[in-house]
Amino acid sequence: MVVLLLACHEIAVEPTTPVAFLDDLGVVYVGQGSPFDAGSSQGDRLAWDFGDGTSDEGAAVTHSYTEPGRYTVILTAVSSDGRTDTASASVTAVYEPLAVLPTASSRLAQGDHLVVVSPESGELTVIHDDTLSRLDICAEPVSVSARGSTAVVACRDDQLVWVDTETVTITNRVSLGWGTRPEGVVQDGDTGDVLMTAGGAGGLWRVGPLGGMTLLANFPDARAVLLAEGSRGIATRFRSPSTSGELYAVGDSVRWPLTLDPGPDSDTDARGLPSLLGALAGSPDGRDLVVGGAKANIERGLQRDGQPYTFETASRAVLRRLDAATGEELADADFDNRDLVGAVAYSPLGDRLFVSHYGTGVVDILDPWRLTRLGGLQAVGVGLDGLVATDDTLWVLASVSGEIIAYDIRMPGQEAEIARYPLWDEDPLGAEARLGAMTFAFAGDPRMSKDGYLSCASCHFEGGTDARTWDFTDRGEGFRDTQALYAMPSAGPFHWSANFDELQDFENAIRAHQSGTGFMDEGDFATAEDPLGTTKEGYSAELDALALYVRGLSATAPRSPFREVDGSYTAEAQTGRDIFFEEGCDSCHAGPESTDAGWNPDGTPVLHDVGTIIETSGQRAGGELTGLRTPSLRGLFATAPYLHDGRAASVGEAVVAHGFDSSTELVNFLLQIEGEP
């Protein structure tokens, strides 16, 4: 219980002059009587208004709040002749935190020591006071849970790794089977097990230290996981279906939908589907949870509602507050000039909520109930995808700019940076590719987008796909499904309609659709503006670095969970592979990139019309759409929906749309392709 005393101020006044003094009252617990002391305030009558519709009188009183929230307390000193003086102060009422706080998956965590994972370097960093210790963990560590001196790391190369953070040594390593692709991990202190989301194999699993796996809930594209009171798990589906966002409450065996925001679209807000749901946290009292990501405006477009996209109506940040017991939506944050939410964390008492925005470089500090803004931190870093709040320190992970930043948060409204540590000893990407990664993710750079809404990562987070179909009719195209960048050909042309011949041509999209000022000089851009004309290479260090970084994403294609546990094709897929070649699929899906994307001798792009072009397919660069560039099959299992307009929900539907009879064997083969067929 927090005991509150009002500061006393000694000022010489006439006895008949009323004087009221109040300082900030801090935090009190709901349902528990808290002392309110007027200190040296003077008056014949001292009256209290507690801001919740109740009042009292006296120099020292006790009051109990019945609901959590922020309240303004007013003290009125009244003299015998009716003169008054007033003072006000804020008080925050919270429910008393649980003995064991809810724990959510994250890229940094606090146990006896702060621990941080870096997917790019494959390392775990442990911070002992001001000393950093690095430990090689695996190919791609993406989540870490800390409890006492034990940390458990989830690795996308299908491993869980246990670490003693005191000695910074690996104590256990469990292999989970090809294509499991762990994403989020939290330790269950009651059982010693781990709750793990699997993005490849799907769903939420319980894993023991010896490797036994139990499926708790089966759902696709699982990402963040929260361990609530009673070992109860709640997890997110990262990329949402077109109807709603999705969370899964394990134990209750129910799906919690997150509704589409109905808008309207404006300069301060927009409609949208909650998706890219990778940020999750539970309130210390266990009553609420918050989930965040991006809000994709899938109802806008010339063919859909007659309105073209603007830089502020395509994608924005989303954050929802839910009842942790029922999944009922309780509040929706209004964010302006922000891109997707990368991480969330409550203060230990639950009186503040910290929200980081992945590419805008901002951490907002919110009222945890109304989700209104109390303050924030600016210019924090790029790739803000981890937060931990202790009693006195907020830790922020900036994965793209490669920093771990600490802020003193003891005084609300006076938060200050106190330390900044490097995430690696040596940059695993190198200087040029790092510049490309920063360019890719930095929505807060006015050259990339106006007002910080959009970056390449907004649709291609981590080089993947957002699973959305956009109406790009205003761009001279039509309905277009977002393609994964890890399935992109190494050389042009690019896009479904082959309307770009080099990656630097994204300068056009940045200027036209994101309202960024661009990375090229105006004169240079005027010379090379045509995306199928004069090359843009060599005009901008940032654009050239962006192209280098994006080409490197081909190495990030996920393992298929449909293969054998050793990574080989199943017998059924081997039969499907024979069908693939017998039917001539390899004539278009050819070579190591499983695509014939390229150029004809006359300089035109290689395009095919396989019968999937329809009226809503639109145009190519404002002209007739005669064919489509062959998409790669790399990582096909993870890139639903399919076809250029996303109208095929499954691989089987896509096969039929090409004029073939769907077969289980062929579909299984296609779902198991990771590189060359």
Percent in helix: under 10%
Radius of gyration, CA atoms, in whole angstroms = 28 Å
Q: How many helices in DSSP terms?
A: 7
**Any idea of the CATH class of the domain at 97-228?**
Mainly Beta
Strand order in the sheet with the most strands = 1-7-6-3-4
Tell me the structural class: mainly beta
Which of globular, elongated, flat, extended, rod-shaped describes the shape? Answer: globular
Q: What's the short version?
A:
With 677 residues, the chain is mostly beta strands. 10% of the residues lie in helices and 32% in strands.
Please describe what this structure looks like:
Helix 1 crosses helix 4 and helix 5 crosses helix 7 (664-672). Among the domains are: 26-94, Immunoglobulins (Immunoglobulin-like, Sandwich), CATH 2.60.40; 97-228, YVTN repeat-like/Quinoprotein amine dehydrogenase (Methylamine Dehydrogenase, Chain H), CATH 2.130.10; 433-556, Cytochrome Bc1 Complex, Chain D, domain 2 (Orthogonal Bundle); 571-672, Orthogonal Bundle (Cytochrome Bc1 Complex, Chain D, domain 2), CATH 1.10.760. The protein has 677 residues and is mostly beta strands. It is built from seven helices and 38 strands. Residues 1-13 have low confidence and may be disordered. The strands form ten sheets. The chain has a five-stranded mixed sheet with strand order 1-7-6-3-4, with no helix packed on it. The chain is globular and about 100 Å long. The termini are far apart.
Write the layout of secondary structure elements.
Blueprint: E1 26-29, E2 34-37, E3 45-49, E4 55-57, E5 60-63, E6 69-78, E7 84-94, E8 103-104, E9 108-110, E10 114-118, E11 123-128, E12 131-136, E13 141-147, E14 150-155, E15 159-164, E16 169-175, E17 182-187, E18 194-198, E19 204-207, E20 213-217, E21 222-228, E22 232-237, E23 245-249, E24 254-258, E25 273-282, E26 288-296, E27 315-323, E28 329-332, E29 341-346, E30 353-357, E31 362-366, E32 373-377, E33 384-389, E34 393-398, E35 403-408, E36 416-422, H1 431-441, E37 469-471, E38 479-481, H2 506-513, H3 522-528, H4 541-552, H5 571-582, H6 651-657, H7 664-672
Parallel strand pairs: 1-7
Antiparallel strand pairs: 2-5, 3-4, 3-6, 6-7, 8-21, 9-10, 10-11, 11-12, 13-14, 14-15, 15-16, 17-18, 18-19, 19-20, 21-22, 22-23, 23-24, 25-26, 26-27, 27-28, 29-30, 30-31, 31-32, 33-34, 34-35, 35-36, 37-38
